[in-house]
Design goal:
Blueprint lengths: L1 E2 L2 E2 H6 L6 E5 L9 E6 L10 E8 L3 E17 L6 H6 L6 E14 L11 E4 L2 H7 L8 E6 L5 E5 L11 E4 L7 H14 L11 E6 L17 H10 L9 E5 L19 E3 L2 E2 H6 L10 H5 L3 H14 L1 E3 L4 E4 L2 E3 L2 H13 L1 H8 L5 H12 L2 H4 L3 E2 L17 E5 L5 H22 L6 E5 L2 H4 L7 H16 L1 E7 L7 H5 L3 E4 L4 H4 L9 H7 L6 E5 L7 E4 L16 H6 L17
Parallel strand pairs: 11-22, 11-23, 12-20, 12-21, 13-14, 13-20, 15-19, 21-22
Antiparallel strand pairs: 1-2, 3-4, 3-8, 4-7, 5-6, 5-8, 6-7, 9-10, 16-17, 17-18, 23-24, 24-25
Length: 585
């Protein structure tokens, strides 16, 4: 049985829990924060092992000092020169092989901060000591986040996820290797199925923006590759090995399709198309999300965007039932028509000031129009005046526990528009509800694209609002990015839980990863897919976890038909599609 490459053979080779593995070194200074252990002959510890030692302190009694192994070294004791290794190997020079390990202290119980004494015995943590060392014993509501290298479950405190004491998750790592999206979906699955939500589970929602093919469209399908070994891991984590139970997929209409058929190829059921009519575009002042790049906010026409949007809201009138509008006596039935209408109005000296509200240089107007015209092609499929206005066409989280917004068929400009408008709508809905419960989890990949460190944009404003006020409103952001150094600092700093997978060496050296100890930073540059380093406020060191193989399909070829489709004899299952690299097991 394996967990993301951590083999059972390695687990069995480690000393049994509770075994004495060595003694506190006297040649290295021990402190209440860290100490070194000399390993006894034949004993082995590895990185991430949890060890404990005890000291009797006058007036306090026994004090437990627990920590995590962060460094393991082996050397010849008695060798003076590098070439001595050959003499020692031949038996010509006496020397002893010595192994030592550095331990970073995670907990002192009771809190009497004294160093462990040299020569004190050090043990691998048994079940109770491990619970204390990693603060699992004080987590009243905990969710499993994967398996540790000792083959036992690791947990996160849900109080730091649901807004009770903190909120939001930041996941960083190299694209295609760090399995950021896979971990985000497992985290959601654990939240929904671990029991921490109790009666709120049915009403708690998740909104996932999918930008990488159709891989996330099958979360409610069994994974055909799930074997008994993986099922056993779910059992050890206290989770059922099954797909998500309630999923609704939203996809844009096919370009040029007059019926609004969703633009997906592999999935045929539980998919709805989403778009905005021209009436909604004008009434809700969505023009500002057409200019959603940070560069747009720095441009001179940013003020003009708000003025034109306000005029559209005031002057646009519905025409018929197809979502078309009439503005200043001119009808617009497509997004291209609306852009052409604005172009004519703003280039005419007689009508320009009515739209701008003041004298606006022609150069600024032309820059605005050039940017607006470039949006016609990407936005025409989702801003429509030719589809029935009364048809249900909005992205909603009320229909299912997990709502997936498929963006992979849209150009980047349109993706920004969709993310901004949908997030604004859901955030305003939560504001108007007046209560933080039930929770809404938002999973957004490529966060550095939507909330870059430099510049401002409408999407960045919303994401900052979510990061800073979402905790009180019950909106929890699970953001993923390749480079945390390029994401707005306030968003990252407001994330109570931080996760790193495989990191680029140059990125790992940035200050944004100061929460990773130096040794862990180095390890993150060679981490295998599926290995994540999770930091949470209660635990002084990041936990190395390996999350289990997904029980839900992560690509079309893995998807078994859901029970409802099997009962109806639906033939559409297991169709080929875009594949994503998933950690091997």
């Amino acid at each position: 049985m394996t967990v993301n490459g951590a083999s059972q053979a390695v687990e069995e080779a480690a000393p049994a829990a509770g075994d004495a593995v060595g003694r506190v070194l006297g040649t290295q200074a021990a402190s209440p924060l860290s100490f070194w252990v000399g390993l006894e002959p034949g004993k082995v510890v590895q990185l991430d092992d949890v060890v404990v030692t005890r000291r009797d302190v006058p007036g306090y009694g026994p004090v437990l000092v627990a920590g995590v192994v962060t460094t393991v070294e082996a050397r010849h004791e008695g060798a003076a020169y590098d070439s001595d290794v050959f003499l020692i190997a031949d038996g010509a020079l006496p020397a002893a092989v010595v192994e030592v390990a550095e331990v970073r202290v995670t907990r002192v119980e009771p809190e009497v901060f004294v160093p462990p004494l040299p020569g004190a015995k050090v043990h691998l943590a048994g079940s109770d000591d491990r619970e204390q060392a990693l603060y699992f014993d004080v987590m009243d509501r905990r969710i499993p986040i994967g398996m540790g290298r000792d083959g036992r479950p690791m947990y996160a405190n849900f109080d730091f996820l649901d807004g009770t004491r903190g909120a939001h998750v930041s996941i960083s790592g190299v694209s295609g290797v760090a399995t950021k999206t896979s971990f985000a979906t497992f985290l959601l699955y654990s939240i929904f199925n671990s029991g921490v939500l109790d009666a709120e589970s049915a009403n708690t929602k998740a909104l996932i923006f999918s930008v990488k093919g159709e891989d996330l469209l099958f979360l409610d399908h069994d994974n055909l590759r799930l074997d008994e070994g993986a099922r056993a891991i779910y059992a050890r984590l206290g989770l059922p090995a099954r797909p998500f139970g309630s999923v609704h997929v939203f996809a844009p209409p096919r370009p040029g399709d007059a019926n609004g058929v969703p633009h997906v190829s592999a999935r045929t059921q539980g998919v709805s198309s989403f778009y905005w009519t021209l009436v909604e575009f004008c009434e809700e002042e969505l023009l500002r999300f057409v200019f959603a790049d940070a560069d747009d906010e720095r441009a001179g026409y940013s003020l003009l965007v708000g003025q034109v949007a306000a005029r559209l809201k005031a002057w646009a009138e519905p025409v018929g039932d197809g979502g078309a509008v009439m503005v200043q006596g001119t009808a617009a039935r497509t997004f291209a028509d609306l852009v052409e209408l604005l172009s004519d109005q703003l280039q005419d000296e007689g009508t320009r000031q009515q739209w701008t509200g003041a004298q606006t240089p022609l150069g600024t107007v032309n820059a605005f129009l050039r940017r607006l015209r470039s949006a016609v092609r990407p936005l025409s499929p989702i801003v429509r005046g030719d589809l029935p206005f009364y048809r249900n066409h909005t992205v909603s989280t009320s229909d299912a526990q997990v709502s997936i917004v498929d963006l992979h068929n849209l150009p980047e400009r349109a993706q920004r528009f969709v993310v901004g408008v949908v997030l604004r709508g859901e955030f305003h809905r939560k504001e108007s509800s007046g209560t933080a419960r039930p929770l809404l989890f938002v999973v957004l990949d490529e966060l550095n694209k939507y909330a870059p460190r430099e510049g401002d944009s409408p999407i960045k404003e919303i994401l900052l609002d979510v990061a800073e006020r979402g905790r009180s409103l019950g909106v929890i952001l699970i953001g993923a990015q390749q480079t945390a150094s390029e994401v707005e600092r306030r968003i990252v700093s407001n994330s109570a839980v931080r996760v790193a997978g495989r990191l680029d060496p140059a990125e790992a050296a940035r200050s944004e990863y100061g929460w990773l100890p130096p040794a862990v930073r180095e390890r993150a540059t060679i981490a295998k897919p599926g290995t994540m380093f999770v930091a949470q406020p209660e635990i002084p060191v990041p936990l190395a976890v390996a999350f289990p193989f997904p029980a839900w399909a992560t690509r079309p070829a893995e998807a078994a038909a859901p029970a409802a489709e099997k009962a109806s004899g639906d033939p559409f299952q297991g169709l080929p599609g875009v594949e994503e690299d998933i950690p091997p097991f």
